[in-house]
Amino acid sequence: MQSRGRCCGFASVDPVNLKMAQVVRGLLVLWCGFLISASGCRSAPPSLPVGNMTNEPQAVFQAARFHVLFLNGGGTKEQNYQSHLLHLTHMAALLRAAGVPVENFTILSGDGEDAAADLAVRPRSRLGKRFWLVEHSPGAAWLRPPLKFENSTLAPFPLLPATRGVLASWFAQAKSRLKPGDTLFLFVTDHGTKNEENPDNNFIVLWGKDARLSVEDLQALIAQLDPEVRVVMVMSQCFSGSFARLMLTNGNEPAGNVCGYFSSTKERPAYGCYPENMGRNNIGHAFQLMHAWSRVGNLIEAHEIALVSDDTPDVPLRTSELYLESILRKRAAAKGVAVDSLVDELLAQAWRDKAKWESKLRLLDRIGQAYGMFSPRSLAELSERTAALPDLAEQLQNVSRAWRGAWQDASTANWERFLEHQGEWRTRLAAMDPAKLSVTDREALARELLPALEAFTRERSDVWTRLSRLRANSRDAQAASYRMEVRQGVLLRMRSVLVQVAGLHYLDTEGSPGEQRAYGALVACEEVVLPKGNLPQPGVRVAAQFPQFMEDARRARASLPAWMGIQFRAPNEEMIRRKGLPAGAAAVITVYPNSPAETAGLQQGDIVLGPPGQPFTERGQVRSWIMLSKPGETLELEILRGNERKTIQLVAGTYPLRWPTLPGPPQVGSVAPPLEVETYRGQVPRQLSGGQAHVLFFWATWCAACKASLAELTEFAAARGIRVVAITDEPRAQLDRFFQTYRGPFPEDVAIDEYRKAFVAYGVSGTPTFVLVSGDGRVSAVRVGYDAKRGLGLE
Predict the structure, then answer these.
(1) DSSP assignment string, 727-760
(2) pLDDT at 479 over 80
(3) E strand or H helix at 106
């Protein structure tokens, strides 16, 4: 699988990151704390990283000294999903192919070797495209395959019960079996639960009802091992970031022998808790990490690939990154400033030499491109543009639930009507126990039942049209809602990268020898490099590029339902009979303030009957009726207030949403934002509507792809009489140094965007970015990245 965010299409730039050895060399002072007293020098690192605990570099994979402990508690058989066992299967295959002996594996999963079923599996079935007609109705019970329960096996390994007693026994033996210089690789694929009283002490679910293991419990177990045994954790459970605290084995500072990779923060669930991923395999942080690790060998590089490729709401984290954030928090507290302010102050200093940080800048760009977002350079920039995103995601969830609820109501009514008119089917289904139907039985039943249901539904074109629209809008809203959930995780990934750069700059300029040693030891611990070879790769989902945020917002707006602003319920059966109400009548229990319903005069206690002469015939039909109306449309409703029937007029509103101003590339045809930049040389217009066409060329002095594009860009502009404005966010002194030595073609008009106003206004997510603006000031084309084969692509 190729990473979706390859460096703007310029293949000669490393798509992931520099090797850690290069990073360490680039930091200059990472390891020289040991040398200060000897020479006063802060720039000459020793030959081996601090924290290396053997005579061999840790980058050399010593398979015989690599011990594997897998943990999958699962809880109960109903919660122990097949995906957990797939995690174990793929990780075991990868490490065995890397040379780890079978006897070095210990796997705790479910009930172990007990022959009783302990694994929930949803069988695959072929129900056909018509299944959506019953998907959210009682009819699904006869067709959708139920969970079945199997016994976990993972040949050739014996499985042990994932209980506290077995785990304690293993560590009791391991403290004498694992020797200094050995590595313990602890892989957790399981459920995690949050400790609401103390999220720093979250839990891993073990086998058995309410059985669990806390951070403190696991810390006590690991403390039994020799301190020169390296412990590397990979944890994919919800709220797993809490377990990064295990690095603090030496008081409040890392000793460097315990490190890890985590799928999410201590406050967030992981991918499996999102309904969009229920029953789906080979997705999420751990699978993306395994897939990348098998390709590139280095676990640190695999982590950075996962930051781009994991298209779930996961937030991949490393202990070394979290350690950097912790020391910045301590520093901010000591200075009496907010940690975000300190981070941005350090970032402003670091970006003075952007060439040094090119790998991190490219990483931010790739993340932004993959998920249709801009590429930030500060926490202030990130928070300013995304503050409303969590609120938007929550509201889109509500919209998605509303569409699904309306679809469910309509599907249920259609199913009940079908059985009422098709007595043969009612009789046949009544004689079948859904719990006893095999997958083959269900598939055979679907081949008969679904065509009959489709034919019946199509006889009423209004019902077919309504169901089709509800289904389409429900799925579109659900997809948009999920993408917003993913983007919330992506924002935290970007934040982590920015904090990492700030932390590294702090270490480089102010960090104490102890902080430098601690960080270096964690990096050395995290760097697990598998031997080169044909290592097995788990198949992972290759997701499509996310749409640009503003395009996503436009689509979401288009799918917003109309809104009247009431809560309702069905009248009781006695009232329906006594007052002769239609089957779909709805009793108003709440009228929202300032809503279309309040404006129309609806009151609590009113009975909504339906449009005049067209009473609602289905329970809950008022919901789909208003949702499928057009916002702004004037509608008539017949209501019953007491014993009086009345007709009211209601102007349908639009479901209320508050949208964040998260920029993306401006839409083709839209007015180009003004250029709020400083002129470095030439003539840089503020407004772009003066009759002259322009290409806005967003670039950087360190950007190889930018330089490669200049010859074609110059030729393109000259041939068409277009003026190019080159815009960078680098300081004037850096441009002075660049133009003193650069001898290639370059636009005459150069601007400095120190405060990144133009970068943000044009949603720039990577350099180079080209924006073609017509003479009347409208955007004609936007292109990100450059390679010679593709060309500029600005025709």
Answers:
(1) EE-S-HHHHHHHHHH--S---SEEEE-TT-HHHH
(2) yes
(3) strand 105-109
